[in-house]
């Protein structure tokens, strides 16, 4: 009341400003704002070409080092910098079917997005471990090879490990359109700009788009934008999970997210460690990945996460792959040789593992899966001998069975992009493939 009488409500809002005192190709040093800044604070750099959003990545001796989200054109020595609002997304249910950038701006040409009533911070802690719900029932992913050999539960987190060009994008589209979920959230980190519309319109299709929210930062985006794409996708998924929905979160790829973190860390002055990755990369990976999963007890919603890992040079023990594999609840390996042989999805069954399989298969299903694995392993072990003619049929009944049945299993694992399956149909097909023990020697050729 007294403020109104004195006219205090009409006083202009006080804004704190600093200025750029040095700059290089990736970062800016700003003075005058240090007492009010923290790591991660958002800034607006007011250059000649307009305001450019930025973020504080380091604080040293009264100065702040910042990076820009967008090309820093027109920013130089003396450019004003002011505090901006913290990073949040006001997610709304009307965002389904839309494509946006990591700052929450639409990029699909369909007009503005309607903001939700409650902004959510992009950086948030995972649900408390002691109050987090347990994994839910098993989940139909719609892909036979995964449903049968890497069976997934609601709230589980799986890694898809593959080199480039092995079919990750196609597999993601099959999951986004075929998995049994209420909402799919796609985080495309460092995606080729040319492929975005092809992926959405051809691979995902209208049915998949209708229940999906897509966040995309293309490969030419800044490191901050590529990093923020993963945070934004996780934030959108948390919004729908908080409403009690079953969310499928697909992020492609965690490796490009880690590369963006490396660029940011090096610009902030962190020392390079393993293969040039800074220590902050391996601290940030679990902070992101642990946010997926079941919500707190009492909330039926869950985030089932599938995260692709781009293994460099087919090295599955490189630092990012090794770190992610230790955080997640299972890993699926895509092999180039399987794809070159013409079987897609090119999942290497013997190298893939879901840590929740013991708790979500019946005894009969487990026996089928284990028998199929033994057959595929024995066939792979004997393949060179058979190819060279060094093995004679009839020498070992187990080898004869593996040679006969392995092609049947491989044929069952092949699946077209438009096909959709379930766990029940996957095990029925596997049982049919294995029901050939009495077939003739030439059967399955």
Automatic annotation (TrEMBL):
Residues 106-135 are annotated as: Disordered. Residues 114-129 have a biased composition (Pro residues). It catalyses: ATP + H2O + cellular proteinSide 1 = ADP + phosphate + cellular proteinSide 2. Residues 154-339 form the AAA+ ATPase domain. Keywords: ATP-binding, Cell projection, Cilium, Cytoplasm, Flagellum, Nucleotide-binding, Protein transport, Translocase, Transport. The keyword Ribonucleoprotein does not apply. It is found in: Cytoplasm. Pfam families: ATP-synt_ab, T3SS_ATPase_C. It comes from the Bacteria. One of its GO terms (molecular function) is ATP hydrolysis activity. One of its GO terms (cellular component) is type III protein secretion system complex. One of its GO terms (biological process) is protein secretion by the type III secretion system. NCBIfam families: fliI_yscN (TIGR01026). This is Flagellar protein export ATPase FliI. It comes from Roseicella frigidaeris. The lineage of its organism: Bacteria, Pseudomonadati, Pseudomonadota, Alphaproteobacteria, Acetobacterales.
């Amino acid at each position: 009341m007294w403020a109104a009488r004195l006219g205090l409500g009409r006083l202009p809002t006080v804004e704190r400003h600093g200025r750029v005192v040095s700059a290089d190709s990736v970062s800016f040093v700003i003075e005058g704002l240090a007492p009010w800044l923290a790591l991660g604070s958002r800034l607006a750099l007011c250059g000649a070409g307009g305001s450019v959003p930025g973020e504080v990545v380091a604080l040293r001796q009264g100065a702040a080092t910042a990076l820009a989200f967008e090309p820093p054109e027109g920013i130089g020595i003396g450019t004003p910098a002011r505090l901006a609002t913290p990073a949040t997304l006001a997610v709304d249910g009307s965002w389904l079917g839309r494509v946006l950038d990591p700052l929450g701006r639409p990029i699909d040409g369909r007009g503005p997005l309607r903001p939700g009533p409650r902004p959510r911070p992009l950086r948030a802690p995972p649900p408390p471990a002691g109050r987090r719900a347990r994994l839910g029932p098993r989940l139909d992913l719609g892909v036979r090879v995964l449903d049968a050999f890497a069976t997934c539960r609601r709230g589980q987190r799986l890694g898809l490990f593959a080199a480039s060009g092995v079919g990750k994008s196609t597999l993601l589209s099959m999951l986004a359109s075929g998995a049994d979920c209420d909402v799919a959230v796609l985080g495309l980190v460092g995606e080729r700009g040319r492929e975005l519309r092809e992926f959405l319109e051809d691979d995902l299709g209208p049915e998949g788009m209708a229940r999906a929210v897509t966040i995309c930062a293309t490969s030419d985006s800044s490191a901050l934008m590529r990093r923020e794409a993963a945070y934004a996708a996780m934030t959108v998924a948390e919004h729908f999970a908080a409403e009690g929905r079953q969310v499928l979160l697909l992020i492609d790829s965690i490796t490009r997210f880690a590369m963006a973190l490396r660029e940011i860390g090096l610009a902030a002055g962190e020392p390079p460690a393993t293969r040039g990755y800074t220590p902050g990369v391996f601290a940030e990976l679990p902070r992101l990945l642990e946010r997926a999963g079941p919500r707190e007890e009492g909330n039926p919603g869950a985030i089932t996460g599938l995260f692709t890992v781009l293994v460099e040079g087919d090295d599955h023990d490189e630092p990012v792959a090794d770190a992610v594999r230790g955080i997640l609840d299972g890993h699926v390996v895509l092999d180039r040789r399987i794809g070159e042989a013409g079987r897609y999805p090119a999942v290497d069954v013997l190298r893939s593992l879901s840590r929740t399989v013991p708790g979500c298969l019946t005894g009969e299903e487990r026996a089928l899966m284990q028998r199929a694995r033994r057959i595929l392993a024995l066939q792979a072990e004997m393949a060179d001998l058979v190819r060279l003619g060094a093995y004679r049929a009839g020498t070992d009944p187990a080898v004869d069975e593996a040679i006969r049945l392995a092609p049947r299993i491989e044929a069952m694992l092949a699946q077209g992009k438009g096909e959709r399956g379930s766990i029940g149909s996957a095990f029925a097909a596997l049982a049919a493939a294995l029901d050939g023990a009495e077939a003739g020697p030439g059967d399955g050729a």
